[in-house]
Amino acid sequence: MSVTYTRDGFVRGFRAAFPLGFGMIPFGLVAGLLAARQNLSLLEALLMSGLVYGGASQVVALETWRADAPVLGAATATFIVNLRFALIGPVLASWLNGTPRRWRWFSIITLVDHVMALSVTQMRQGRNDAAYIPGVTLALLFWWQVSTAAGFVLAGILALPRGHPLFFAAPAVFVALLVPLWRGPRQDAVPWLGAASVALLTAQLLPGAWHIAAGGIAGAALGALSDRTQPA
Amino acid sequence: MPGGVTLWGLDWPTLAAIGAMVAVTWGLRAFGYLVLARLPPTPFMRAFLAHLPGCLFAAFLAPVLAAGGWPTLAGAVAVGVVMASWRSLPGAMAAGVGVVWLLQAALARAAMP
Which residues of chain A are under the pLDDT cut of 50? Predict the structure, then answer.
């Protein structure tokens, strides 16, 4: 498999990811609203969204923000919620290796779930253009910054209650991303149900976002074991 | 600004916290590429990585959907059906949000005396 890095790939990634912005808007609004509520400035909110670029971790960190001493709490929450980012590198390693050196670290430090899901779908279609990654990233970063700023600016005006249906857009993205990843019941039913069960159990036992890493690892291990016992 | 928010201020404790979040997040992303990706690619490891994306999303979704009740579950089904039929992400998300919105409104109306 040879990996390329072309303008075409970049454009395809950008086009594929741009509509995802629809799903990030409610999430970004929440990040912006929380930042305003915790007395961050707009500049600080945009710095956080642009550099951390991990929505779930930003929301958790801001919900548990301590204005007098925010460093340790924010770092811990971020570590737990973003642990899963360490698992993306191995999945996309062949593309990252095929990325020119001067662009490679940009792709690495901006890895997020959507990049992984969209790229894996490309890989399975036999398309191997690593410029797809920064294409996706720039489209998502654009929406992420715009929606963070919008949430911040609207903080005094807009007051969406916690259970507002618009917030369903965030989980809906992940449901939609699961559809092209489904390879059939024989391969995916057991690992996905295993991941969901372990996640539900872990979420009962531990606060924060440990359930994502625990469920993901348990499900993938289950899948790898069952692949071995029933050869394709 | 209304609500007493500030636009361009920077203060050190906040910047330090954002810096710590950035360091942790970039560190985790780099660790995955520099360390985890160099582990020898056994057949088990390859199968594990192939299963990982779907499993991470399933793990993320399970507690969210469980906590959301029937409207959320119905919304998730709507997203899945539209996505599987038309492969349209915006369409799938609009359908999901719409279903959740309608069902929540219907439930709220039914709960009224």
Answer: none
